[in-house]
Design brief:
alpha/beta, Rossmann fold
Length: 285
């Protein structure tokens, strides 16, 4: 890796924020000095998702199709998900989802200490899908057994179920310690499921914090890596959720964000042309 970084005409990673972060000791994994020395050649292009596959208007895996201009189908998807996982069919109770690896990097060490309080003090339903560290498997099995009406944990990989969760949930929790880009938040935006993320890497580049004063934003963002900051962000999301008009603003702005490969692909083409030109200028005449 170090030889590749040292010898490349240009260096690219999968988000602009992560390109900045890897020049620091915290994120650089010992390569931060070399990356800092080559910072002028370092770029970041955020990933995209396949809009043919991740499309709530055509997705055959979900209970009802819907679009940014016709969201009634998402209400049906939520009811179908609640029924599938054994929750009470209550359209007013927010459904919070997590999909991904059950490891500290994805922020499970922040979720674990506050999960009991969330389930006991807040009217919400929690769906988790993924595999990872055995300690989190055990913790989720035990909590789900005690809170069957509020917590459903699927400790497996199931692509079709993931689609149904993205479509049926109200909020998508992704409190990562670090995240070069992340795809979960991009899919959740596409499906009108509002992301709650930590401001790091690609999460910072793709989710903008909703502010009621401006009526602008696509999700809820927190900065400090601790359970208190996560709780505050979730609390802000729940407060806006109780205001349907404002919640709709967040959903619509997120669904209208272009998370497709179209924009990113054009930037890659520009990157390749830049690299070719740099090589031409450095080559002997």
């Amino acid at each position: 890796m170090s030889q590749g970084i040292a010898g490349a005409d240009l260096i690219n990673t999968v988000s602009e924020r992560y390109a900045e972060e890897i020049t620091t000791p915290e994120y650089g994994e010992g390569l931060d000095g070399l990356l800092t020395a080559r910072q002028n050649q370092l770029r970041g292009i955020v990933n995209g998702i396949d809009y043919d596959i991740f499309n709530p208007e055509t997705d055959a895996a979900i209970a009802a199709r819907y679009s940014v201009d016709a969201l009634a189908g998402k209400v049906q998807c939520k009811a179908a998900l609640q029924q599938e996982v054994g929750f009470d069919l209550n359209p007013r109770t927010p459904v919070v989802a997590m999909i991904g690896r059950l490891v500290d990097q994805k922020g499970f060490d922040l979720v674990a200490p506050i999960l009991d309080r969330l389930l006991s003090e807040i009217d919400l339903q929690f769906v988790i899908l993924g595999t990872g560290d055995p300690e989190y498997h055990e913790m989720l099995r035990e909590r789900a057994a005690r809170n069957r009406r509020q917590l459903a944990a699927f400790l497996t990989f199931d692509a079709a179920l993931a689609q149904r969760i993205y479509a049926g949930a109200d909020m998508f929790l992704m409190p990562s310690r670090f995240e070069p880009c992340g795809l979960g938040q991009l899919i959740s935006l596409r499906y009108g499921t509002v992301p709650i993320v930590r401001s790091t890497g690609g999460l910072a580049d793709t989710v903008t914090d909703y502010r009621g004063a401006t009526h602008r934003g696509t999700g809820f963002v927190f900065r400090d890596y601790n359970a208190v900051a996560l709780s505050v962000a979730l609390g802000r999301a729940l407060e806006v959720y109780r205001q349907p008009d404002r919640w709709l603003e967040v959903q619509v702005q997120g669904m209208r964000r272009d998370s497709s490969w179209a924009a990113s692909a054009s930037r890659y083409v520009d990157l390749y042309h830049e690299a070719i030109e740099l090589r031409r200028l450095r080559s002997p005449s």
